[in-house]
From TrEMBL:
<protein>
    <submittedName>
        <fullName>DNA-protecting protein DprA</fullName>
    </submittedName>
</protein>
<dbReference type="Pfam" id="PF17782">
    <property type="entry name" value="WHD_DprA"/>
</dbReference>
<dbReference type="InterPro" id="IPR010994">
    <property type="entry name" value="RuvA_2-like"/>
</dbReference>
<feature type="domain" description="Smf/DprA SLOG">
    <location>
        <begin position="107"/>
        <end position="315"/>
    </location>
</feature>
<dbReference type="InterPro" id="IPR041614">
    <property type="entry name" value="DprA_WH"/>
</dbReference>
<dbReference type="Pfam" id="PF02481">
    <property type="entry name" value="DNA_processg_A"/>
</dbReference>
<dbReference type="InterPro" id="IPR003488">
    <property type="entry name" value="DprA"/>
</dbReference>
<dbReference type="InterPro" id="IPR036388">
    <property type="entry name" value="WH-like_DNA-bd_sf"/>
</dbReference>
<feature type="domain" description="DprA winged helix">
    <location>
        <begin position="339"/>
        <end position="393"/>
    </location>
</feature>
<dbReference type="InterPro" id="IPR057666">
    <property type="entry name" value="DrpA_SLOG"/>
</dbReference>
<comment type="similarity">
    <text>Belongs to the DprA/Smf family.</text>
</comment>
<dbReference type="GO" id="GO:0009294">
    <property type="term" value="P:DNA-mediated transformation"/>
</dbReference>
């Protein structure tokens, strides 16, 4: 996916942002106070933010009485904060300090300059973040790309193409390191100067899903992995909706590429809209289940996106052009491919196979060929990357 020269010129300076700012202290006592506050049972980010606003840093909070803290938060939360730490806290502190001893690992808190200011738009910003990679990327202007884990091949191609084009425009690409659209978006983001940020639902010392282990290493080396969950945290189902709010907050806008009508990606889009971020959606076939969520978002006011300039215009990185009647071919939508088979002759089945999903019976009727011939040729087209089989035994052409 190519961006226009105007887009590149408008955003070129974003690729040369300043060096990372001062990070969190690695002082054991201060780190212990932050972890005790953040890990207090039943105490969430909203309570932590109230206490920090009222009393200052965690060591000052922990020096207060229950009565003093109860003037700001409920007494049960005050007692939980000041309760004697369990035996697990010293082990967590030791483990975190050891993790910080590895180059590229950071803990960033409310008290650090490197804490991303956009997270303060959340009602419940995480009090501390674990980061593998470059913390400066979290301050870079960004667009999130999210979508289906079980994305189609075309959906993954679109996600990677948009990720690359946005990154080439100087924007960081934010996603959730899941299979499908997320992984493709990160791969695209790594191809440009904007880089990519993966927000995870596990501890920073774990990778979920395991299939993305190699990708996670690459993102940590050339981008950033960020999480609010302490080291050792497994990928629990409740963690991922919480992860989504950070994805939404870090970005100027969220682009949804393939999503079912009931999808976690729609939660991320809603959170983005609630925060005043832009919401974008890539349309698809009216017959494709993984387009239903995108179409729902468009009906609700999301901007329909066909090319990267549609995103750049909306977030004011590219002046809105006067579009001529004969618009350019969208960057994310393939041009008409050559309708030829491997011998170079016209292929009537490929010509009959459109970008909308179609059944085997319909293809037989369109092409005038018997089912066994159509099925054999479809297999050849799948292996060559010209077609894909979708759930329900329907097929569509790929660019």
């Amino acid at each position: 996916m190519a961006t226009s020269q105007a887009a590149l010129a408008a955003a070129a300076s974003l690729c040369h942002a300043g060096a990372a700012r001062q990070l969190t202290t690695r002082d054991p006592d201060e780190l212990k106070a932050w972890l005790q506050l953040a890990c207090a049972p039943g105490v969430g980010p909203v309570t932590v933010r109230l206490l920090l606003t009222a009393f200052g840093l965690p060591q000052q909070i922990l020096a207060q009485s229950v009565a003093a803290l109860s003037s700001v938060v409920p007494k049960k939360h005050a007692r939980a904060v000041l309760a004697r730490p369990g035996t697990g806290l010293p082990a967590l502190v030791e483990r975190t300090l050891a993790w910080l001893g590895t180059p590229g690992n950071h803990v960033v808190t409310f008290g650090d300059d490197a804490y991303p200011a956009r997270l303060f738009d959340l009602p419940d910003p995480p009090p501390l973040l674990y980061i593998k990679g470059d913390p400066a990327l979290l301050a870079r202007p960004a667009v999130a790309i999210v979508g289906a884990r079980g994305a189609t091949e075309q959906g993954k191609r679109d996600a990677q193409a948009f990720g690359r084009a946005l990154s080439e425009s100087g924007l960081a690409v934010v996603s959730g390191l899941a299979l499908g659209v997320d992984a493709a978006a990160h791969a695209g983001g790594l191809q440009g100067c904007g880089g990519t940020v993966a927000v995870t639902g596990t501890g920073a010392d774990r990778v979920y899903p395991a299939e993305n282990l190699a990708l996670a290493h690459e993102v940590a080396a050339r981008g950033a992995i960020v999480t609010e969950f302490p080291l050792g945290m497994q990928g629990l189902p409740a963690n991922f909706p919480r992860r989504n709010r950070i994805i939404a907050a870090l970005a100027r806008g969220v682009l949804v590429v393939e999503a079912a009508a009931r999808s976690g990606s729609l939660i991320t889009a809603r959170l983005a809209a609630d925060l005043g971020r832009e919401v974008f959606a890539v349309p698809g076939s009216i017959h494709a289940p993984l387009s239903a969520g995108c179409h729902l978002l468009i009906r609700q006011g999301a901007k329909l996106v066909e090319r990267v300039e549609d995103v750049l215009e909306e977030i004011n990185l590219l002046p809105a052009p006067a579009r001529p009647a004969a618009a350019r071919v969208p960057a994310s939508v393939p041009e008409q491919p050559d309708l030829s088979d491997f011998a170079g002759h016209a292929d009537p089945l490929l010509a009959a196979l459109g970008y909308d999903p179609v059944t085997l019976d319909a293809l037989c009727e369109r092409s005038g060929q018997p089912p066994e011939a159509v099925a054999a040729r479809l297999l050849e087209l799948e292996l060559a990357g010209h077609a894909e089989r979708l759930p329900g035994n329907v097929f569509r052409r790929l660019g």
